[in-house]
């Protein structure tokens, strides 16, 4: 270690390398995450189909006013990032220009002579180069001249030449140096005060303040960015009132600490509240402002409750005072409702686990009322209002949603109507307003559920035994109602085209019908239709009528197979039963068709003399292929679940929601859970689906009942954004009795005689010899 020394960077070359790498590591992720992008460039189709109603325009202008410096901030971010990349390019250029004195020192290359040149040639080349680069000359360069001199000495001096050949340096072996990639001015006495001041500012003040702020915020908020005091408030009221109606859920929501000035600095009481809030309270009869429970009777809670009632009633409020408070309160509600769902589900699970008394078990209606409150607030509607009011240009006095056959109650029923009926119902709207309505409907969700129940850890996955862990895998497929609109339009076009063809070919059908009746021969007629009488005429008439009826029935049946799944009403309990009936009809048709084909194939086998015994011999190969296919499916399923776990919680982007009365942009989220309607209990905790773009597969696990029998559960999918998009699916579990595990293996059961023999012969080992046995007998 005698020849080692540490030295700082004098010229700044190694420091530039450090700065270049550090700046590159910072600029790459910063450009990826901070480069401002326009939402119009990312989603052009969305803005082409976006609603341009009055409420949506007001919302867009409000969002622009909320952040007026957005464009300026985006430009500043772009400017900073571009300047950072320009500085990075400048540093790269500076680093490339560095020429270290001893880096790749080759005297032959510097003088421009060949390897093994004579001293005369070396001297001539040195004189020629030195005349050109001498510092006294106009074209002189001191650096190059010093290099030439050193190269000349390295090739002419024997000691320098030997050092260069051995060590690569004409001066001989150098001491090992360790450089620090920091400029030397950092350790100079003149700059020590400034360096120490910077260290003190960063590590003694800046870092503790940042860590303290983060820690103070983390201990105040939960994972959903909700105050922990609010979470405790929810636990208290849901434990106090296990069965809570929708009106009381709204009261508890308004009492959240996010709306209290002492817990939230964004809430600022105004002097105008003394006049405006009492006037607003008088407009509602069921507000419950005389409730004496704390904190439901506090002023901030009553004000927030009145503003939520005004929002659900779609009342106009003063723009500069109460409307600003309403927008802030409504914006916070989705996260608060999600925290409510988590609190209620945890209380229900604790009660089922025996940690809470069953008398304090929250009812199933309580958690469902909490979930129902979310789409009400997002759309600004009470639950007793028509879901059609979610559409633009539709108000309470709009009473035309009635056709000749039925009353339209849901948006999906309206989307399934033919275009002419849809336009006639909205005949009071202008073409532009009608296009806005259809654009909003085409973006609304249409969900399909594929449900599979199994026990993954068992050999027989389809068999469910008592107390087994059941996994219900739900595959959600998200489409838009635009598919229903296009299907109804195509059905109407095909129907109109079919009626036109039918009218053209009506005469030809009559002619062919008469020909068929004439050529039809009853079985009892021998002479080919010579028999005349009443019975013969009736039989021929019936035979002639049956054939066209069968021709008319079959085509609609075949055409309807492809559309039954898409035309099922969303959110009805008959969804699964109708699908089962449809599958039953298809299986009957396939079975009837299979009998015909089998008979025909038997005839063909008899005619051609084919041998069918080869198929029996290949059953083992088919079984092996089926096992391999099932194993591949199982592996793919596990891979999908692992991938879903990795992606879980990384994003909260699905599809934008049309909600002109909600102050912010909203994404479609869902709750998925299994419940027992008979016992009014929750089987699985609600799973919050936040990434449903096209398809998503979600596993729900729960323990099967401890007693065998048939159990009926309900799989529920609830939307937090729309009022009429909930879905229900019935799950029927046939729970078998669990197989008892034998405590003792049958091969290990020993009789009493064998036990006695073993006890007597236990002293004799398997490795003892006859001599050992004789010695033991002699000793006895």
From TrEMBL:
Keywords: Chaperone, Endoplasmic reticulum, Membrane, Protein transport, Transmembrane, Transmembrane helix, Transport. InterPro entries: C2_domain_sf, DnaJ_domain, Ig_E-set, J_dom_sf, Sec63-dom. The chain crosses the membrane at residues 15-35, 79-96, 193-216. PROSITE patterns: DNAJ_2. One of its GO terms (molecular function) is RNA binding. Residues 528-541 have a biased composition (Basic residues). Residues 750-760, 768-780 have a biased composition (Acidic residues). The keyword Magnesium does not apply. Its main location: endoplasmic reticulum. Pfam families: DnaJ (PF00226), Sec63 (PF02889). Residues 505-520, 580-598 have a biased composition (Basic and acidic residues). It comes from the Eukaryota. It is found in: Endoplasmic reticulum membrane. Residues 485-629, 743-780 are annotated as: Disordered. Signal peptide: none annotated. One of its GO terms (biological process) is SRP-dependent cotranslational protein targeting to membrane. It is a multi-pass membrane protein. Residues 106-168 form the J domain. One of its GO terms (cellular component) is Sec62/Sec63 complex. PANTHER family: SEC63 DOMAIN-CONTAINING, TRANSLOCATION PROTEIN SEC63 HOMOLOG. This is J domain-containing protein.
């Amino acid at each position: 270690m005698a020849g080692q020394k540490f030295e700082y960077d004098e010229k700044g070359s190694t420091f530039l390398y450090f700065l270049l790498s550090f700046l590159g590591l910072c600029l790459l992720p910063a450009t990826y995450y901070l480069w401002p992008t326009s939402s119009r460039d990312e989603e052009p189709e969305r803005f082409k189909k976006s609603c341009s109603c009055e409420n949506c325009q007001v919302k867009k202008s409000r969002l622009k006013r909320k952040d007026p410096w957005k464009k300026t901030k985006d430009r500043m971010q772009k400017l900073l990032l571009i300047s950072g990349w320009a500085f990075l390019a400048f540093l790269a250029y500076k680093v490339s220009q560095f020429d270290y004195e001893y880096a790749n020192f080759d005297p032959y290359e510097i003088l421009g002579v060949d390897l093994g040149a004579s001293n005369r040639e070396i001297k001539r080349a040195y004189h020629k180069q030195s005349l050109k680069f001498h510092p006294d000359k106009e074209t002189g360069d001191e650096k190059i001249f010093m290099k030439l001199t050193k190269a000349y000495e390295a090739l002419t001096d024997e000691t320098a030449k030997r050092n260069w050949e051995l060590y690569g340096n004409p001066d001989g072996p150098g001491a090992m140096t360790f450089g620090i990639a920091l400029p030397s001015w950092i350790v100079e006495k003149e700059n020590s005060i400034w360096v120490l001041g910077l260290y003190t500012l960063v590590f003694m003040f800046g870092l503790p303040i940042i860590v303290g702020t983060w820690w103070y915020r983390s201990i105040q908020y939960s994972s959903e960015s909700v105050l922990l005091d609010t979470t405790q408030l929810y636990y208290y009221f849901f434990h106090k009132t296990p069965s809570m109606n929708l009106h009381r859920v709204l009261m508890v929501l308004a009492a959240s600490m996010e709306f209290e000035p002492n817990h939230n600095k964004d809430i600022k009481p105004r002097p105008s509240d003394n006049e405006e809030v009492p006037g607003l309270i008088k407009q509602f009869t069921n507000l419950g402002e005389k409730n004496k429970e704390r904190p439901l009777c506090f002023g901030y809670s009553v004000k927030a409750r009145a503003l939520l009632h005004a929002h659900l009633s779609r009342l106009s409020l003063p723009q500069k005072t109460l409307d600003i408070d309403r927008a802030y309160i409504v914006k916070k509600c989705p996260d608060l409702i999600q925290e409510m769902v988590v609190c209620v589900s945890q209380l229900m699970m604790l009660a089922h686990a025996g940690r809470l008394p069953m008398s304090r078990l929250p009812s199933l209606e309580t958690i469902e009322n909490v979930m129902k409150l979310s789409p009400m607030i997002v759309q600004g509607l009470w639950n007793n209002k028509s879901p059609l009011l979610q559409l633009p240009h539709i108000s309470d006095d709009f009473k035309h949603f009635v056709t000749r056959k039925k009353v339209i109650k849901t948006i999906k029923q309206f989307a399934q109507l033919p275009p002419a009926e849809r336009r006639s119902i909205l005949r009071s709207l202008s073409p532009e307003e009608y296009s806005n309505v259809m654009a909003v409907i085409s973006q609304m969700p249409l969900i399909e559920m594929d449900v599979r129940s199994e026990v993954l850890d068992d050999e027989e996955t389809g068999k469910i035994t008592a107390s087994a862990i059941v996994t219900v895998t739900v595959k959600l497929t998200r489409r838009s109602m635009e598919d229903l609109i296009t299907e109804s339009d195509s059905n109407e076009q095909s129907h109109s085209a079919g009626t036109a063809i039918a009218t053209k070919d009506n005469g030809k059908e009559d002619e062919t019908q008469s020909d068929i009746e004439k050529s039809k021969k009853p079985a009892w007629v021998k002479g080919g239709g010579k028999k005349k009488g009443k019975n013969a005429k009736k039989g021929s008439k019936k035979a002639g009528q049956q054939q066209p009826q069968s021709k008319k029935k079959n085509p609609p049946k075949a055409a309807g197979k492809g559309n039954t799944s898409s035309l099922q009403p969303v959110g009805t309990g008959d969804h699964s039963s109708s699908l089962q009936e449809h599958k039953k009809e298809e299986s009957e048709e396939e079975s009837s068709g299979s009998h015909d084909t089998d008979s025909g194939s038997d005839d063909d086998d008899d005619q051609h003399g084919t041998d069918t015994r080869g198929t029996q011999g290949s059953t083992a190969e088919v079984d092996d292929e089926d096992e391999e296919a099932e194993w591949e499916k199982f592996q793919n399923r596990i891979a999908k679940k692992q991938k879903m776990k990795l992606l879980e919680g990384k994003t909260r982007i699905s599809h934008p929601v049309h909600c002109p009365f909600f102050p912010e942009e909203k994404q479609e989220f869902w709750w998925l859970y299994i419940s027992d309607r008979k016992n009014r209990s929750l089987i699985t905790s609600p799973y919050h689906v936040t990434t449903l773009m096209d398809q998503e597969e979600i596993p729900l696990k729960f323990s099967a009942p401890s007693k065998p029998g048939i159990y009926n559960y309900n799989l529920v999918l609830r939307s937090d954004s729309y009022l009429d998009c909930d879905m229900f699916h019935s799950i029927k579990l046939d729970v078998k009795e669990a197989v008892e595990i034998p405590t003792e293996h049958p091969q290990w059961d020993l009789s009493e005689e064998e036990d006695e023999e073993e006890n007597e012969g236990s002293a004799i080992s398997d490795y003892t010899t006859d001599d050992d046995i004789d010695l033991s007998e002699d000793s006895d």
